[in-house]
Give the backbone structure.
Amino acid sequence: MIDLKFRPRKRERLTAEEERDLARAIHAAERRAVDALAGVEFAQKIIKRKPGRAERTRAGEVDRMEEAIEALWQKSKEQTDLRDRARTAKGAWAEAEDLRWKLAMSGRRIAHGEARKLMGPFMSEEDLVQEGYIGLLRAAKRFDPDRGIRFSTYARWWVRAQMTRAIDHTGRPVRLPGCAVEQTRNLRKAMKRFEDAGEQFSVADLAEEAGIDTERATLLLAQGKTISLEEPVDDGPRPRSLEGFMVDADAEMPDGEVMHDQELLRMRDAFRLVLTERQQYVLSRRYGLDDSEYRTLSTVGKEMGLSRERVRQIEREALHRLREHSGIRDRKVG
């Protein structure tokens, strides 16, 4: 069996058996946490809730387990008879989270390798590595050791998907689906191959190289074109530019301070809905959401009685959870 205190060194990799043992240890810790919820009706309702389409995955199951444990923890503050169960569930779940982090970080070389391939003008290698870590965490959450595939192989897809999604969000004014971004990249690569070989090519040639139809290739290549704000966008005796539609000189400008306060309210609402109390505290202190004073990892760690690295892990987990629930901030402020 794998040593559960294992911390991979910079160049060390897990063997296939070690990956499977670590994943099974994660599942065992999750089962212990769920066993502690036996007989707690409201927690069981959450776990057995009929999943929506997006939740019919292992990740959706893990999210429901975590939601049930958090609900029990909150309820135990009012009902003392639930405290032993809540502590047992919380402890087992914390163990599962630590093991999941170790499994994810055993593949961090993948994040660095893919970042070097995909870095460009819109995202640096360092930013892509951080996105790659998020992809590794998503892979660790979903990994099934009994499917006969290595975690390093499975995780590479999630790392690349997370990075391409981040590049798409950063580099394009209009978001494209992840599959479209990948197809566009293949079209660009095909174009470069023809140009390097000095050969003439058409859109049909590029489409054949990328394995898609010509109509879709034409559409995807058109997405890369830019539009000038001064370009006329309507026909008529007095054509107007796009800027003319966007700017209203007579419109009343919103007060910056009011916008800032409303944004903070939305952020706090989102924090309460998707983050644990510890995660809320770390982000609030790190980024000065309460007093506009930024703090270092070491400072926050001293306040909480935790190590600098543990605070970094909690911050990363919180940011990952907020990204997963990115649409929640658009709810109306109560």
